[in-house]
Amino acid sequence: MKKLPIFATLAEGCKIGLVNFFSLLGVTILYLLTIWIPYLNVGTTIAVSSLPAELAKGKMINPAFIFDGKYRKNMGEFFILYSLMTGAVAVGLLFGLIPGLVISIAWTYAIVIFVDKDLNALESLRESNRITYGNKWRMFGVVFLLVIFFYIIIGLLTLLILPEIEWLSILAAVLIIIASIILIPVSVGLEAAMYRFLSAPEEPKAVEAKAVEVKAETAPAEPKEEIIALAKEKKAPAKKTAPKKPAAKKEAPAKKSAAKKPAAKKAAPKKEK
User: Cα(18)–Cα(8) distance, rounded to whole angstroms?
Assistant: First the structure.
């Protein structure tokens, strides 16, 4: 199972966001200007939700892409998917904060996958849960660190706002606005970096090693004596056996001749008187 590298992901997310800073800023402005237009706003919302997938592929974003008609093609499936997501998270929150949080992280990329891989609502939810499995708390940690870093910067800049020094207060306010604007593309870049890592197929060597591991775990354990005997047999060179000579045929024992009985003596002739 792949483990999401927290600090490497943060660095890559910031890089993606800053490289596409003006494009993402343009997308944000166009989206806010047209969010009130019925029907069109559905397509633009789906398009904006798919931004991590487009950035993960290394594409340069044209802000006007959110008006492409293809994003309105599956709006029915989108409504089903969005309803399932929000409904499940709401039910999870009834059982406490953690179940709702876990479900929301597990389905973070459901809409992204829905657009990127053209799957239906249920398949998108399953795939999002699959790719985030084992990395939910790491994903939470990445976002948490970004938010903490942002609030530290805002807090430090807020300390510079002093009524006595007007120019310093104006400068601090401007810097806070700039930091808030930068946070938008960096957040999208961070989502793209995580999606790129999680959706990438595992390397063949890693897959083979995993298969061997599973096979070793599921195989029945052999007795130690048998294993030692097999090892000795493999190490010991096979002895050459001399060719066996054909066995000599045994001669049949001679038949014993039957003992001749002595001939009966002839009776002597009687003398005549």
Answer: 16
